[in-house]
Design a protein that fits this description.
The protein has 157 residues and is mainly alpha-helical. It contains 6 helices and 3 strands, in the order ααβααββαα.
């Protein structure tokens, strides 16, 4: 983790932070659409695949449905497309034969890394501009904002 000392930052208000977040979200939405297009996926397919990649263990279709905010029926279509595209594999849950577990295909993870890797490098370079304490604040804020967005989505949509 970077240990750079804090540097002077321009003053900012809550409105400035929210405006910057809106700009980031809009730009990332366009970026996700392009990343998905480059991988011959839809954005929802990409979101589900990213969740499978991030998970520490195989995930269930229900996990994916909740994460992507779609029905279990819709997630079946997503999994069919991801499986046909060579992104995921499905297998039975050894503890519950009614459930299916989804895992990422390693070569698919490499395909995504080839497309996403340069952006991840730029983000890593940006993080190097901040001290460990500043990164802790940024991470806390982003984590809180994501949790609020998920709660809003679940309660209002």
């Amino acid at each position: 983790m970077p240990g750079k000392p804090s540097q002077p930052r321009p003053a900012a208000s809550a409105a400035d932070a929210i405006g910057a977040l809106d700009d980031l979200v809009a730009t990332n939405l366009i970026g996700r659409q392009e990343l998905a297009r480059n991988l011959d996926l839809s954005v929802k397919d990409l979101v589900c695949f990213a969740y499978v990649l991030e998970a520490d263990a195989p995930v269930t279709a229900g996990d994916l449905a909740g994460r992507a905010h779609v029905t279990t029926g819709a997630v079946t279509g997503i999994l069919n497309r991801l499986e046909r595209g060579g992104f995921v594999e499905r297998g039975p849950d050894p503890t519950d034969r009614r459930r299916v577990l989804v895992t990422a295909v390693p070569s698919a993870a490499e395909r995504v890394q080839a497309v996403y890797g340069p952006y991840a490098t730029l983000l890593t370079d940006l993080c190097a501009r901040y001290s460990a304490d500043e990164l802790a604040v940024i991470t806390d804020w982003l984590t809180g904002a994501a949790a609020m967005a998920r709660t809003y989505l679940e309660d209002s949509c």
